[in-house]
Automatic annotation (TrEMBL):
FAD dependent oxidoreductase domain boundaries: 7-341
Name of the molecule in the record: FAD-dependent oxidoreductase
A GO term from the CC aspect: cytoplasm
Gene Ontology molecular functions: oxidoreductase activity
Assigned keywords, A-Z: Membrane, Oxidoreductase, Transmembrane, Transmembrane helix
SUPFAM superfamilies per UniProt: FAD-linked reductases, C-terminal domain, FAD/NAD(P)-binding domain
Transmembrane segments: 7-24
Domain of life: Bacteria
Pfam families: DAO
InterPro entries per UniProt: FAD-dep_OxRdtase, FAD/NAD-bd_sf
Length: 367
């Protein structure tokens, strides 16, 4: 059966659903075409950080883009809860980037100095061991210190995705599961989509938010998505007494009391499995700064494939060859969710491209 929609968003992960909800709440007719449950989903491997600290050392605009989104997260979370009744567990107490040696701390300070020189709004504190231990009594005695930034926070990725699904359908959006798009054909200012199983859909505009599948879909609308998989493994422990109210890069305690440990960055193709050596290394890196975790039981471990470009930065592109087609891809689906919902959407609806996005086009990979 052939159907029509004003805008088709291909991909129902954190990136696609944030954009789809942003469009639907502005009155657009939107359908989300999502893959099957066994599709390779980056959202399953998200650590839940709304993280700004240290991002953009080689590209200040990425630091600005991350801060722009982080500053909008509280209002984004409040809106989702007010609309759906789902609390996404967002907190922004500031984050610690822990350094176990003096040399490591000096390197982290150098990065923050470089970032602050180009973006004064990025503030931070350098904490020695004594100052860090005052704020985090559970820290190991050998840890040299940390960088603290008030811009960082954390959230439940799964509750965020659940809230986005609920809010999207409440605002009139249509979600179609098991709808892998196999082909996109531009037709007289619109797009004809072939969907696995013999279904089709016509749309006035198309947003590619399909993660790794964007690599195959983008050329169909005159775009390029040079992305590759990067596996990340994560451990979750049993619930323990509160000891860490601030997120860190490798360890964070959830609102339920469990502790998430991560992460890894492995170039292993499309293998999203779990490996004993990486799990052991993740556990070691968590126990070293937080010795109290030594006897805590791990209850789950899994792997997922992140969507990475060669420089680690996002791609946001509008097709010149096929007007009305847009490409969105990034590996920071949680941090950037608020900006995707709030700032990207007016551009897709026909407004000006946000200046913050200027460096994030695919042409940078053509050289």
């Amino acid at each position: 059966m052939q159907k029509t929609s004003e805008i088709a968003v291909i991909g129902g992960g954190l990136v696609g659903m944030a954009i789809a909800y942003g469009l639907a709440r502005r009155g657009e007719s939107v359908v989300v075409l999502d893959g099957a449950d066994d599709a390779l989903r980056a959202a399953r491997g998200n650590f839940g950080l709304v993280w700004v600290q240290g991002k953009g050392a080689s590209c200040p605009n990425y630091a600005r883009w991350s801060l722009h989104s982080a500053n909008r997260w509280q209002a984004f979370a409040d809106e989702l809860e007010a609309r759906t009744g789902v609390s996404v567990g967002f907190e922004r107490p500031g984050g610690f980037n822990i350094a176990e040696t003096a040399e490591e701390l000096a390197a982290k300070v150098a990065v923050m100095q470089q970032l602050a020189a180009s973006e004064p709004a990025l503030t931070y504190e350098v904490l020695d061991h004594e100052a860090l231990a005052e704020r985090v009594p559970a820290i190991g005695d050998h840890v040299a210190g940390a960088i603290y930034s008030p811009h960082d926070g954390h959230v439940s990725p799964l509750y965020t995705l659940r809230a986005l699904f609920t809010a999207f359908t409440q605002t009139g959006g249509t979600y179609v599961p098991n709808a892998r798009v196999t082909n996109i054909t531009p037709r007289a200012g619109a797009f004809h989509l072939d969907i696995e199983g013999g279904r089709t859909l016509d749309a006035g505009r198309v947003v590619l938010a399909a993660g790794l599948a964007n690599r195959d879909l983008a050329p169909m609308v005159g775009l390029s998505a040079p992305v590759r998989p990067m596996r990340g493994q994560i451990l979750v422990t049993e619930r323990v007494a509160p000891f860490l109210s601030n997120p860190t890069i490798y360890v964070r305690q959830t609102v339920e009391g469990s502790v998430m440990l991560g992460d890894s960055a492995e170039d292993v193709g499309f293998d999203d499995g779990v490996t004993p050596d990486v799990i052991a290394d993740i556990a070691r890196r968590a126990i070293s700064p937080f010795p109290l975790l030594r006897n805590v039981r791990v209850v789950r471990a899994w792997g997922a494939l992140r969507v990475m470009t060669s420089d680690g930065l996002p791609i946001y592109e509008a097709s010149r060859a096929c007007p009305g087609a847009f490409l969105t891809t990034c590996h920071s689906g949680v941090t950037l969710a608020a900006a995707h919902c709030d700032t990207i959407v007016p551009w897709i609806m026909g407004g000006e491209r946000p200046s913050l996005l200027n460096p994030f086009n695919a042409q940078r990979f053509a050289v």
